[in-house]
Amino acid sequence: MSDDKAESGGVVTRFAPSPTGYLHIGGARTALFNWLFARHHGGRFLLRIEDTDRARSTPEATAAIFAGMEWLGLDWDGEAVSQLSRIERHGEVVEAMLAAGTAYRCWASKEEIDAFREQAKAEGRPPLFRSPWRDASEPGEGPYAVRLKAPREGQVTVADAVQGEVTWAAEQLDDLILMRSDGTPTYMLAVVVDDHDMGVTHVIRGDDHLTNAARQSLIYRAMGWDVPVFAHIPLIHGPDGAKLSKRHGALGVEEYAAMGYLPEAMRNYLARLGWSHGDDEFFTTEQAIAWFGLGSVGRSPARFDFAKLENLNGQHMRAAADDHLVNALDRFRVHRGTAPLDEASRARLLAAMPGLKERAKTLIELEDLAYYLLAARPLEPDVKAAKLLDGNARALLARLAARLKDVQRFDTAGLEETIRDFAEAEQLKLGKVAQPLRAALTARAVSPGVFDVMETLGREETLARLEDVI
């Protein structure tokens, strides 16, 4: 139903975070679904910062949201909209609703509302506040709130593109506040006005907003506006089935970037949290855009799994172009305060990348594997490498270095032939030579093939590093 409707006109989706903290993983997934749906239909994806909560909204949080979106590669159309800048417009709509009789002024105090609810509970009735000012003929005194005149009878139905048709009895819904007594609009009002004015056709968000859709649809109808297509997607849970929390991985997007994940892998993984395309697990962003539809979004909560994310990230690294990974690693290092790669390091890294990316699942692992290409001499061996470089090993490497000085072909094939001949002459298995050689050249016990390492470093650098160890 929702995708059919999308075909009939221009699709407009939006992501509307509150700038009260980082862009968490659930928000990122919501943004991604809206972005994919808009891009699939050739529509527009908008960004609105819902900053009307002045006490909790901060410029730093807004900047973090922008940075998270940019790292994920979720570009938005036009300028980001500040909800706070539209307060006058929200007030205009409230005045229009008062004039039309679809809203009313309420002078009830907090104490009166609390007392009403307590009495309702004591009498076994629903604690929904029923304002005595709804049909009052005379105005009260002092500050007042403005409430929606919601229906008291019948049903309110939302045709949700994911959850199906959902119905509430009107008596379960209260006369929600549209404007507080201090003159500020509520979230319920502001989001409806902004979505209408921005031309939003599809509201895709977490299913914790499902009840809000019933109440917000009443505001649309009160203003005579078209109700957008609602699509409430399942929340993300931890591996244990409990609501996602920091202990599960409910971190800010920037923390996933700092852990060395690629943006394209995060997009792939987040897309699979609640949406599927057959049995496909690994796919490109272009494929996700081509395939995405609300009809394939499930209703059950998705489960976050770090092991699956890491595995998927490794697949994306192996599939990535070598120069793409060099650039990604360079940005990753610079973000952590390391100087940009120089041309020589970049060239060595590019040459070694085919072997490096086969062994790494994150950029952190890739950087560690590439230590031998990026570190200044003399290299500092790690614990395992140091154990391989005892006195006997150093003496062996000294004899090998003497032979390497005269090697004619300093390439993988020529070096392998030379070192195999050397090992045979020393009456050793190849590994007994390759292991200390690897430790000397890379300062690690694990690396790409040692012959590839030597070719990448070149004769001069290889001999210099052996000399450092000897």
Automatic annotation (TrEMBL):
Protein name (Swiss-Prot/TrEMBL): Glutamate--tRNA ligase
Similarity field: Belongs to the class-I aminoacyl-tRNA synthetase family. Glutamate--tRNA ligase type 1 subfamily.
Gene Ontology MF: a single term: ligase activity
Binding site for ATP: 246
Pfam families (alphabetical): Anticodon_2 (PF19269), tRNA-synt_1c (PF00749)
Glutamyl/glutaminyl-tRNA synthetase class Ib catalytic domain location: 11-310
InterPro entries xrefs: aa-tRNA-synth_I_cd-bd, aa-tRNA-synth_I_codon-bd_sub2, aa-tRNA-synth_I_CS, aa_tRNA-synth_I_cd-bd_sf, Glu-tRNA-ligase_bac/mito, Glu/Gln-tRNA-synth, Glu/Gln-tRNA-synth_Ib_cat-dom, GluQ/Sye
PANTHER family: GLUTAMATE--TRNA LIGASE, GLUTAMATE--TRNA LIGASE, MITOCHONDRIAL-RELATED
Assembly behavior: Monomer.
EC number: 6.1.1.17
Subcellular location: Cytoplasm
Domain (Aminoacyl-tRNA synthetase class I anticodon-binding): residue spans on this chain: 342-470
Function comment: Catalyzes the attachment of glutamate to tRNA(Glu) in a two-step reaction: glutamate is first activated by ATP to form Glu-AMP and then transferred to the acceptor end of tRNA(Glu).
